[in-house]
Amino acid sequence: MASKADTEQNSAMSAGPIIPTATSGSETERVRRIYDKVASRYDGVIAWSEKIFFGNGRAWVCPQAGGAVLEIAFGTGRNLPYYPRDVRLTGIELSREMLAIARRRAQRLGHDVDLHLGDAQSLPFPDQCFDTVVCTLALCTIPDDWQAIAEASRVLRPGGRLLWLEHVRSPVLLVQAVQRLVDPLAVRIQGDHLLRTPLDHLRTLGLKIDQMQRSKWGMVERVSARKPV
Length: 229
Ligand SMILES: C[S@@+](CC[C@H](N)C(=O)[O-])C[C@H]1O[C@@H](n2cnc3c(N)ncnc32)[C@H](O)[C@@H]1O
Hints:
Elements: H1 4-12, H2 22-54, H3 57-61, E1 68-72, E2 88-93, H4 96-109, E3 113-117, E4 130-136, H5 145-155, E5 156-167, H6 173-190, H7 198-205, E6 208-215, E7 220-226
Parallel strand pairs: 1-2, 1-4, 2-3, 4-5
Antiparallel strand pairs: 5-7, 6-7
Helix pairs in contact: 2-4, 5-7
Bound molecules: S-adenosylmethionine (SAM).
Residues 28, 31, 35, 46, 72-73, 75, 78, 92-95, 98, 119-121, 136-138, 141-142 line the site of S-adenosylmethionine.
């Protein structure tokens, strides 16, 4: 997996694209295989955990998006119904099978969305070309969440917004202890990391946090941040 130091080095040479290391490549391939396999069951499985954990999280995140919007790790397109109709939406997703379901959902809902198969850790878009970047329930799964956030920041225009809904490491020690127990299994089976703290990356990257809400004993996080002008 690419370390933060690798990424900082890549960013320092920022004329060129950020190139993931061989290790991060193999983990990315593993995650792709997991989601290709799970795609047909994903909507059913996630629906109940959305009800229990994430409440109206999608309805909090998506209406704040405006202008040219990029959603990373687009999944099966579950955010589509929540976007304002006038956004210009682009999506990128690692799994071909998840993306196929998203395409059908977009068609069914009559949403005009530019969907790409690709890697959020190495976005195929120029610097500063989006007004908003959205990510829901995926910073836990993208192998290098630091790199994904760095890439999101790169493609945001100055003043642009990064919005996310995520499950993160709880500050409540008892809850965190349970997360520590379950994490190795979750990572192995689902590529799902329970102990991440993506907010730290935002701060390191110099984005300004406008809103941050925590719920479910600090496990669920909603964030709206801005790239400085
Ligand atoms: C738990 S699902 C969330 C899907 C969707 N964002 C949602 O809110 O329902 C995680 C998604 O992240 C995608 N993913 C994981 N790593 C990725 C990467 N490096 N680039 C793009 N998508 C990735 C997976 O294929 C999967 O669709």
